Amino acid sequence: SSLLPKDVAIVDSAQATAISLYELLQNQNLHNDNLEVPPRINYLVTDSINRFQKVGEIFLGEQLSLSDIELIDAMG
């Protein structure tokens, strides 16, 4: 027995977003299939860059360079 009616579907928003992004990148010919060139990751933050670096390194398990972290104004 289920708690939800049979016509209700549970959607994993992270998976749905990843699939949509993959399809968009493929359709726009922006998907990078070259695994020999490591991707460059830029982090856009709305709070302390130093705090993001410290917490990000804990969660991501790798060193983050301050040059890859940019403070942005989310309101404008």
Automatic annotation (TrEMBL):
InterPro entries the UniProt entry points to: Asp/Glu_race (IPR001920)
Gene Ontology MF terms: racemase and epimerase activity, acting on amino acids and derivatives
Gene3D superfamilies cross-referenced by the UniProt entry: 3.40.50.1860
Domain of life per record: Bacteria
Protein name as it appears in the record: Glutamate racemase
